[in-house]
Design brief:
By secondary structure, the protein is of the alpha+beta class. It folds into 3 domains: 189 residues, no CATH class; 80 residues, no CATH class; 98 residues, no CATH class. Helices cover 47% and strands 16% of the residues. It contains 17 helices and 10 strands. The chain has a 3-stranded antiparallel beta sheet. It has a 3-stranded antiparallel beta sheet with strand order 8-10-9, covered by helices on one side. Strands 1-7 form a two-stranded antiparallel sheet. Helix 10 packs across helix 11. The longest helix is centred in the last third of the chain and has 31 residues. The radius of gyration is 23 Å and the shape is globular. The N and C termini lie far apart (57 Å). Keywords: Coiled coil.
Length: 409
């Protein structure tokens, strides 16, 4: 087994909706570009938790760099765009002509745009029943069942011009994610490493990685660490095509050992004989324990909830700034404008207070009894010289994340 890892604090560890993890193999049924579609979903998770001042806008260049794609690959034209499905040749010609006359009437025929179009028009059906965590004063916490999810509720193509006014226009994509999906990033999630996903994607081992992350997470809740999956189930997750079981084991062993070697998952792999079996086809995966004691687990959960709350609080406060001071929000100096606005406790007090309560709801699904005391403490601690890190203490502010440009029509 590898040396103990600092699980839980890796910089590329992001929260992923459990519905995605539990139904990860369903994405392969969408089309041949399922890997790109999954990359986009992970990118949305990453952006929500790391790029507060650029969230909601996808920059193809930043996405390509973050998830190790070439721009040529993303810009390549697909043979059968999802946008053309069910349309006659006349209707397709009309779409193409409309784009020529008005570039904002986009034909989504590149790999990237086709994937975005699918996520914004085609709900992904879940073979394992999906869930949304919720709260009711009468019954407490509960789960609502769902059978599918449309990940992008709204998608818009935008064009920005260089500040100099010269050069080629840049294409950006404004998006609004499904509210239930965003909600689950705070209340119904597991944590996966985007670097691990990227490393394993080319070999098509990424689904198996997510499956193992899910297994380890579920075992940890029960204070267990040994996973004994059925061979056939693990093989189906891998998604390869081999007839002989001996070849299947060789391929599965290769994938598991690569995950063991190249990701943050720390486990020992052994093989056992099942009852009445001549050969050892039962995988036994012994995960490193995430927490040594119940106290360590409890402290980690509390710290994580504070981090989730602060992330939600930034998003809610930014939404208020966009509503009450749009010129300051839609500015290249958005971060400084936001900081100065947060420092001023004499303006937009009611709106800021409501944003604080909304962040509590998004994080805990209910408003605590002592909410007024919490709000007083939060706002009173903001000084005229406070930094963003001092205001939102449990969040890492990525100052190098792209600051998206906007054109106000």
């Amino acid at each position: 087994m590898k040396q103990p890892s600092s699980i839980g604090i890796a910089p590329n560890l992001v929260r992923v909706d459990k519905n995605v993890a539990y139904n990860i193999t369903d994405f392969s049924l969408i089309n041949d570009e399922s890997g790109l579609i999954k990359s986009l979903i992970y990118y949305f998770c990453h952006s929500y938790q790391n790029n507060f001042f650029g969230y909601g806008v996808l920059d193809p260049m930043h996405f390509a760099k973050t998830f190790n794609y070439t721009t040529n690959y993303l810009q390549a034209t697909v043979k059968k765009p999802a946008q053309f499905k069910g349309k006659s040749q006349k209707e397709i010609s009309f779409l193409i002509q409309a784009e020529k006359e008005d570039p904002s009437q986009r034909v989504f025929d590149s790999r990237l745009e086709n994937a975005l179009y699918i996520l914004s028009t085609q709900p992904v059906s879940f073979s394992n029943e999906g869930q949304i965590r919720d709260f009711n004063e009468d019954i407490g916490y509960f789960y609502r069942k769902i059978s599918s999810m449309l990940f992008i509720e709204q998608l818009e193509v935008r064009f920005t011009r260089p500040k100099s006014g010269r050069g080629k226009e840049k294409i950006l994509y404004n998006y609004q994610l499904n509210k239930e999906f965003v909600k689950n990033l705070s209340t119904f999630y597991l944590k996966a490493n985007t670097n691990s996903f990227i490393k394993l994607r080319k070999a098509n081992f990424d689904d198996l990685y997510i499956h193992l992350v899910t297994a380890r997470t579920n075992l940890s809740v029960k204070n267990e660490h040994i996973y004994r999956p059925k061979f056939d189930h693990l093989w189906s997750v891998l998604g390869k095509h081999r007839e002989e079981k001996r070849e299947q084991k060789r391929e599965l062993k290769k994938a598991l050992e690569k995950i063991q070697k190249e990701t943050e998952l720390n486990f020992e792999l052994t093989w056992e004989k099942s009852p009445n079996s001549r050969f050892a086809y039962q995988p036994v995966i012994n995960f490193e324990k995430i927490f040594s004691t119940p106290k360590e687990r409890e402290d980690a959960i509390k710290n994580e909830r504070r981090q989730v709350f602060d992330q939600n609080l930034i998003h809610e406060m930014l939404e208020v700034l966009k509503s009450v001071k749009p010129s300051k929000y839609y500015s290249e100096n958005r971060e400084n404008n936001f900081l100065n606005w947060m420092r001023d406790n004499k303006i937009d007090i009611r709106e800021k207070s409501a944003a604080y309560e909304q962040a509590q709801l998004k994080t805990y699904l209910k408003i605590p009894k002592h909410i007024d005391a919490y709000k007083r403490s939060f706002f009173n601690n903001i000084k005229p010289t406070s930094t963003l890190k001092e205001i939102f203490t449990d969040v890492e502010i990525n100052h190098n994340a792209p600051k998206q440009e906007y054109i106000i029509d």
